[in-house]
Amino acid sequence: MPLPDLPAVPLPDAPPAGVPELLTLFRPLARTGFLPPTAPLLSLPGPFQALLDAVPALAPAYQGGGVRADLLDLDAALGDRRDDARQLDTAQQEALLSVTAILMHLYRWNAVPVTPARFQERPTFPPHLHALFRDLSAAHDLPACGTMHTLKYLNWRSDALPPGQPYHAAQVQAGQVRIAHNWHATPAGDDRDLAGQLDLWIQTFVLTEARGQAVLTAAAQALAAAHHHDRPALETALEALHAAVQAMTRQINTLMRFRVVRSDLWRVYIQPTFGWGLPAPDAPDGPPLEGASGLQLGGTQVADLALGVPFDSNLGRALRHSRTSMTPPQRALLNAWEPHRNVIRAAVLDWGGSRARGAFDAALDDLNRWRVSHRERGAVYLRGDGREHVMASTGTQLDAGTPHEQAFRDLMNERIEETGARTVGPAADPD
Fold it and tell me: Is Metal-binding among the key words of this record (predicted)?
C-alpha cells in the first residue's frame, strides 16, 4: 500500500559529521535512551494542577456524552496562562505539555467509541488550552499534537523513582510502572476495564523504550569500535547489541502476549485516543499530523541504524518521517546517523571475523523475528472483533473505515524483507 507523499525529514548537510562527532550525540540519551531524563512529575504549581486533576475527572464523560462542554468550562476558568508557563522549569513544562496534549486529544475525539463524523471535523479548540499547548509544543520543537513522548513517555509513574529526579532506564521495571494520568474510567461491574487497558498500553511502550536504552549503549560501543578498527571491542559490543535487541523485543512481546490488551477494546476505545489526523495549524492544507504511533519507538530505529537496515520501503519512509515527533536530541542522533548506518556492517564484513558476524546476524534475526511477530499480532488488533470500525490516523496513513489488515501485512512484509536482506552470513574462510 503506497504512502502519500511525506515531507522530507532534514538530514545533516554535506559533508556529514564524522563518527566521532556522531558519538557525541549519544551523550544526552545515555542514561534513559528515548525516555525523558527525569522521572515525570505528578503535580504542577498553581492553576496548572487543575489540568492534571481534570484528566481522570473527565473519564466518565469521555465514555459517555462527551467532554467538550466540561473542557470549555475548564478553559474559561484557566484563562491565558502562557506567561506563567514560561516561568516553569523544564520538568514542569514537560508535565504541562503532556497534560495539555492529553486534553487536546480528548477534545478532538470528544467521546469513545468515535463517531465517523469526527474524522472529517476540524474542531475549534478551547482557546486558552490550545494556545498553551501550541506554545509549549513550539518551545520543545514538537508538532502540535500528541506524540509518543507527550502522551506516553511523560505520562507514567514508578513506585521506585521519585518524580522529577534523574534515573537510569534499567530502573524502569515491570510491576512498578503505571500510567500517571488515565483518561478512561472503569465503572463498577464493567468487565471491560478500559482504565486497565489504557494503563497496560502505556506500560508496554514505556517498558519497551526502557529496554531500548541498552540497544543505544551497545550500538554506540559498536560504532566506536568500528571507527577505531578494534576487533575485540566490536565483537563484545555486537554481542551486547544482540542481547539488548533480544531483551527489547521480548519485553514488548511478553506484555502483548501474556498481559493481553484486548483487540476488540483496543480498536474501538484505546487506539482512537492516540491519533490526530488534523493538519498543522500553520499549514491547514498540508498533510495531517499523525499523533502517537509505534513508529516513534526510538529503540527499534537505533537497532535499524546500527545494523544497516535501509529506510527505502513504504514503512521505512514512514519510520524516518516519524522522527519529526521525537525530541530534538533524539531526532539529531537518528538523522546524523543516516550517512553512517553501514559503518558497523562494513566493519563486520571487512575485518570483523566469524564471532562478530555471528553476533551481527543474531541481532538482525531477533529484530526481524520481532517484526514477524508484530505483523501477526498487529493484524489481530486491526481485525478487532471482525466488524468494521473507524480508526484514527496512524503513521502508515491507513484510511479510516476501510479494511486495514492486509494493507498492514503488506507494509510489514516489505520491512521484513528489507531487514532480512542485511544478513552478512558466515565468513568465507575460518579465522
Answer: yes
